[in-house]
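Lab notes, practical 5.
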Amino acid sequence: MIGTTQSTQPSSDLYDVIGRRRDVRAEFTGGPLDDDVLMRVLGAAHQAPSVGLTQPWDFVVVRDAATRGAFADHVAQQRTAYADSLDADRAATFAPIKVEGIRESSAGVVVTYDPTRGGPSPLGRHTIADTGLYSTCLAIQNLWLAATAEGLGVGWVSFYREPFLSALVGLPTHVRPVAWLCVGPVEQLQEVPDLVRHGWRERRPLADAVHAERYTRREEVAAR
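Output from the prediction step:
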């Protein structure tokens, strides 16, 4: 109904979902992914804000084992290439880190970005062209949180070359693949994120990310 409003009260449930969200790799069970649940999750993604209401995203759901296997093989090649670029110490830290759950998950969701959505002059993209891409990332975040709320895991795979994935799922030349998301039931969600557990990086404190009035280099603050 036009003119109705929604509650502005904070939801502890939302904060719980945000806190539990993890980038899943090894915990997928491969169990069935209910179509109704998947559509709810994709519906949440489709509710994301977008510049000029362009909704520049699409979702390619991939269940075919051969397609997923071909993508997994490609990702393995890219993982090897990245590992070869590291120095010995960093390579040793990287070695046990799993970067995908393509075969183990129940489905892959390829999230795409179409820069032509909304016509030649989309509202809000006049000065910052990347706002369309930002909008697609907001849809991914919505999907991720909804999946977590549904008890599903999501893993964002980024070890791929865009032309390969575009050809694999038949994207038009102007449409960009932003993410392959592994989606499905999981045994559990890790309490500590994988990259922290494996010693790759530590989570950055919120205090280091918050600035008052102007951006301040942290080394400048420490020197005062």
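Observations recorded by the TA: The two ends are 55 Å apart (CA to CA). Strands lie at 57-62, 107-113, 152-157, 176-185.
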